[in-house]
Amino acid sequence: MSGAALLLMAALALQVKAHGDGFDYLKQGKPAFARTAFKNQLKRAPDDLHAQGGLGLAELALGNDQIACTVLLEVLGKGENGPEMRLGLARAFLRLARSRLALGLGDDDSIRYLLVDAEDQARRAGAAAPADPRPFEVVAEACLEQGAIERALAAVAEAETRGIAPAGLKRLRGQIAYYTVRDRVAEGSESDYLTARDGLQALIREDPKSAELKLWLGDLHHAFGQWNEALAAWKAAFAIEPFDRPALDLVMAYLKVEELAAAARDTLETALATAQKRVSGNDPRPAYVLCCVGQAKLFEREFDAATTLFRKARTLDDALEVQCSLGLAEAAFKTQRFDEAAIEWKRAFAADREFARALLAHLGSASTVSGGLQYLAGAALKKKGGDEARELLGIAWLLQPDEPGVCNDYAFLCRETGKHQESWDAYARLIELQPENPSYLNDAALILQDYLKKDFALARAIYERAIAAADVLLGDPLAPQASRDDAATAKTNATNNLARLLRK
């Protein structure tokens, strides 16, 4: 055999070894090593769909569900139809739905679509692997989240037929106990709650090392307003398995309740201690827990400690850009490092605006952060940084979309910095919020007339509304003098602007 042929065989052997190592690492529970192996394989063979799918599965195992979805959807779209890939995508869809529910991110339809897709992909995986019970475990979970109890029970029966492990069956039974009463919370049925609680506790006694059962018990307590019991159950779960992000997200919401904050912090610190025992080195899985404990430190005003945790988390896992940047921004602002705070807030919202907004709302700090952004915008304006101020105010308005003052300031800055369509969008929202304010009405119409130079009939109608609203205020003897003065100015401006419009 020629030397060239030997070299080619050796290169192919190395590729196969690297290819296999990624999947071997996944089987060994080492997803960080698996991700590195798959990335190395893809450097040598960028079109290797199986390796790309393996990378998606590694991201899933690391908790990066959105990245996993993106990678696995692309791989399946290119023709890689292995059941493991479909099952991984189903799990990613299901976990994304649960995370969004925990954070209040997205509407009912977007979450429903994720759950429907999770069920569909899991059924396809089951069809491609007729002896594997795992796909129907995911089918059952997706059906339970949708409230389709009968479909879930049928899926559990199919998983039993395929030989589901006893621990998996107990976990599904625990979920069924929770979901059968979840939607009855509004009825306040204590008997339903007690029956489900007792059923879960019995399953836990049979399998005391099941983190999943304890997580579901925590969710049950949470759904029925048993806050301390929920934290105790989640803490027990985190002592076994610390990486369940939806549960961690729910615990973070408890930090904003003064009488529950200490127990919530203790629960999160338990998760971090377990995570640090479970993995070492550069494994990114503890990064999310570091962020959660960082939030606890922020609530305690331990800003230096919080900063250290967020920076460590971002070093471990750059997929946590939003969480880390938001935490670093708040710590920087509260220690008067204003330039750093502005950079980090912009960085968080550039990464994912809607997720950043939802996370701040979940933590109860959206209005506080909006106030900080308004302060920074004012400082930027003093330095003649109109574009910087506009960007910061745009984020503040996203966090407080129904606050007229923020909306008006943003609309004005957009106008002054040449962002005329954005200015109109903000003014359109402003006159919805305060339809009887003549100044806002005049300013909105002016954007259409002088800046966008379109929709003149609408501009005319808005000017006429401004004049009528001003007359109402001017004719009201109980209106404050400042309001009457503003109305008089607005009427004069609207009248003159309307006259110019009619002359065209």
Draw up the topology in text.
Elements: H1 3-27, H2 31-44, H3 49-61, H4 65-77, H5 83-103, H6 108-128, H7 134-145, H8 149-161, H9 166-182, H10 190-206, H11 211-223, H12 227-238, H13 245-254, H14 258-278, H15 286-299, H16 303-316, H17 321-334, H18 338-351, H19 353-363, H20 366-382, H21 386-399, H22 404-416, H23 420-433, H24 438-452, H25 456-474, H26 481-503
What does it look like?
This protein has 504 residues and is mainly α. It has helices at 3-27, 31-44, 49-61, 65-77, 83-103, 108-128, 134-145, 149-161, 166-182, 190-206, 211-223, 227-238, 245-254, 258-278, 286-299, 303-316, 321-334, 338-351, 353-363, 366-382, 386-399, 404-416, 420-433, 438-452, 456-474, 481-503. The chain is built from 26 helices and no strands. It is elongated. The termini are far apart.
Order of helices and strands: HHHHHHHHHHHHHHHHHHHHHHHHHH
What is the beta-strand fraction? Answer: under 5%
Please summarize the sheet with the most strands: none
Total beta-strand segments: 0
Low-confidence stretches: 1-19
- Gyration radius, rounded: 28 Å
Tell me the structural class: mainly alpha
Gross geometry: elongated
* Helical coverage, percent range: over 70%
Amino- and carboxy-terminal Cα gap:
88 Å
Helix count equals 26
Mean of the pLDDT scores? 92
Quick structural summary:
The chain has about 500 residues and is mostly helical.
Characteristic terms for this protein:
504 residues, mainly alpha, 26 helices, 80% helix
